[in-house]
């Protein structure tokens, strides 16, 4: 396989970029409120098990495809199976999924930009400010929500235009270390609050009496979301990977960082929520409504809220970079146009298709699709249909379509793991992962 012109300059750069793709809304926004609604510590334990047993094999599968082909997502499947071009639809499904995901992901990213900007001047948690009313103002005022969407889109376009090494890798090398530093500061402050121990116990003490079949399904879905697997984003990222880099070691590092960030998110949020007697099952508004109210009751609350929002912003951006890259890389491969022009086109397209979700909380609030708002319907389609479907197809492709020797060679090349590691991975990707995904997929459709 030929070497790609663009490559990661180092293994660390690739790991940080992959971790950045994984560590976003899933780990910091979605994990706390889903855990709050699904059993706390028991849910987190299930999430860790699912991430290691199901998410890790899927991550390895995407790495094998990408580095093995040295092509972006659509071309990778074509190159590995030229006699069966139908498999290229996995990459095309990934592109459609990423665009749909960006259509509501960018909306939340815009909210975070607005919150971050306002928090710098100390306006989010003024004594007279009602966090719920402020959230309603940000999301319910069309020009404010659209401004946030535009800023978030522009930030992504700038970084993606610069390319792999100068754009994505450099941004992640700055943002990811800062993310962990700010996380540690927030965790230390959170766990030292009076009454914080109740929140720590809720998050770390497994109470399986609160676990239901739905909780198990959510745990698996969260593991997919937290690792950014299923849309072939990491097929594209790993296509820039050098052959002497260990895929198992890189995947293990990304999984470890993702679990660790989810762990830190719980420690940063639940002690604060319990210390100030907030509602732990608040759902998606938890970070935007509950936490500003809680931070407003502690000394230097505005400073800690600004730190948290900045952390949240970094994580959201590093994750959205991977969503943009899969689309831009596919277009660069297909059309003889500059990367900058194609990135701008993609950014403009994402902005346009994100407008309906942006206006869900204002002028389009009464518009529903199968009983759901535009924002919620898009989220459901991506998270509960396209994401499981993408993971299932990738598992089948690696486990049953690619030659076993090719998979084995690509997995072990550049690594120190032995054949036993491969045998475990191959058994999981062939027999365990597809069955579990099908069960989850069918159950989610039945629930709908």
From TrEMBL:
<feature type="transmembrane region" description="Helical">
    <location>
        <begin position="381"/>
        <end position="402"/>
    </location>
</feature>
<feature type="transmembrane region" description="Helical">
    <location>
        <begin position="176"/>
        <end position="196"/>
    </location>
</feature>
<feature type="transmembrane region" description="Helical">
    <location>
        <begin position="12"/>
        <end position="29"/>
    </location>
</feature>
<keyword id="KW-1133">Transmembrane helix</keyword>
<feature type="transmembrane region" description="Helical">
    <location>
        <begin position="252"/>
        <end position="276"/>
    </location>
</feature>
<dbReference type="InterPro" id="IPR047218">
    <property type="entry name" value="YocR/YhdH-like"/>
</dbReference>
<feature type="transmembrane region" description="Helical">
    <location>
        <begin position="423"/>
        <end position="446"/>
    </location>
</feature>
<feature type="transmembrane region" description="Helical">
    <location>
        <begin position="143"/>
        <end position="164"/>
    </location>
</feature>
<feature type="transmembrane region" description="Helical">
    <location>
        <begin position="216"/>
        <end position="240"/>
    </location>
</feature>
<dbReference type="InterPro" id="IPR000175">
    <property type="entry name" value="Na/ntran_symport"/>
</dbReference>
<keyword id="KW-0812">Transmembrane</keyword>
<dbReference type="Pfam" id="PF00209">
    <property type="entry name" value="SNF"/>
</dbReference>
<dbReference type="InterPro" id="IPR037272">
    <property type="entry name" value="SNS_sf"/>
</dbReference>
<feature type="transmembrane region" description="Helical">
    <location>
        <begin position="41"/>
        <end position="65"/>
    </location>
</feature>
<keyword id="KW-0813">Transport</keyword>
<protein>
    <recommendedName>
        <fullName>Transporter</fullName>
    </recommendedName>
</protein>
<feature type="transmembrane region" description="Helical">
    <location>
        <begin position="86"/>
        <end position="114"/>
    </location>
</feature>
<dbReference type="GO" id="GO:0016020">
    <property type="term" value="C:membrane"/>
</dbReference>
<feature type="transmembrane region" description="Helical">
    <location>
        <begin position="303"/>
        <end position="328"/>
    </location>
</feature>
<feature type="transmembrane region" description="Helical">
    <location>
        <begin position="340"/>
        <end position="361"/>
    </location>
</feature>
<keyword id="KW-0472">Membrane</keyword>
């Amino acid at each position: 396989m030929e070497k790609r012109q663009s490559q990661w300059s180092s293994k660390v750069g690739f790991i940080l970029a992959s971790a950045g793709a994984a560590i976003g809304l899933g780990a910091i926004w979605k994990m706390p409120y889903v855990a709050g609604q699904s059993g706390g510590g028991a849910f987190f334990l299930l999430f860790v098990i699912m991430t290691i047993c199901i998410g890790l094999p899927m991550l390895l599968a995407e790495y094998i495809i990408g580095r093995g082909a040295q092509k972006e997502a659509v071309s990778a499947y074509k190159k590995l199976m030229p006699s069966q071009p139908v498999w290229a639809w996995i990459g095309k499904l990934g592109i459609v999924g990423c665009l749909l995901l960006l259509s509501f992901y960018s909306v939340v990213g815009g909210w975070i930009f607005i919150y971050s900007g306002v928090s710098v001047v100390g306006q989010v948690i003024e004594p007279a400010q009602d966090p719920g009313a402020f959230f309603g103002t940000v999301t319910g005022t069309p020009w404010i929500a659209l401004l946030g969407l535009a800023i978030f889109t522009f930030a992504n376009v700038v970084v993606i235009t610069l390319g792999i090494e100068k754009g994505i890798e450099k941004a992640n090398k700055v943002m990811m270390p800062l993310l962990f530093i700010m996380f540690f500061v927030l965790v230390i402050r959170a766990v030292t609050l009076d009454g914080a121990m109740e929140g720590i116990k809720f998050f770390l003490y497994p109470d399986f009496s609160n676990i239901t079949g739905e909780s198990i399904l959510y745990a698996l879905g969260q593991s997919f979301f937290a690792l950014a697997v299923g849309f072939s984003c990491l097929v594209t990222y790993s296509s820039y990977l050098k052959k002497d880099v260990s895929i198992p070691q890189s995947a293990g590092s990304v999984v470890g960082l993702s679990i660790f960030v989810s762990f830190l998110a719980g420690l940063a949020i639940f002690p604060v929520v319990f210390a100030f007697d907030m509602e732990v099952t608040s759902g998606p508004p938890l970070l935007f409504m509950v936490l500003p109210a809680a931070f407003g009751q502690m000394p230097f609350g505005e400073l800690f809220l600004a730190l948290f929002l900045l952390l949240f912003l970094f994580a959201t951006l590093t994750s959205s970079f991977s969503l943009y890259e899969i689309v831009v890389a596919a277009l660069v491969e297909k059309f003889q146009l500059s990367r900058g022009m194609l990135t701008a086109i993609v950014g403009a397209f994402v902005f346009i298709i994100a407008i309906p979700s942006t206006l869900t909380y204002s002028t389009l609030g009464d518009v529903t699709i199968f009983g759901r708002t535009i924002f919620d319907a898009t989220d459901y389609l991506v998270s509960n249909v396209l994401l499981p479907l993408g993971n299932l197809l990738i598992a089948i492709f690696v486990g049953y379509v690619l030659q076993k020797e090719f998979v084995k060679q690509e997995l072990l090349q550049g690594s120190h793991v032995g054949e036993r590691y491969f045998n475990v991975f191959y058994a999981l990707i062939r027999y365990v992962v597809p069955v579990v995904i099908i069960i989850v997929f069918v159950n989610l459709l039945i629930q709908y």
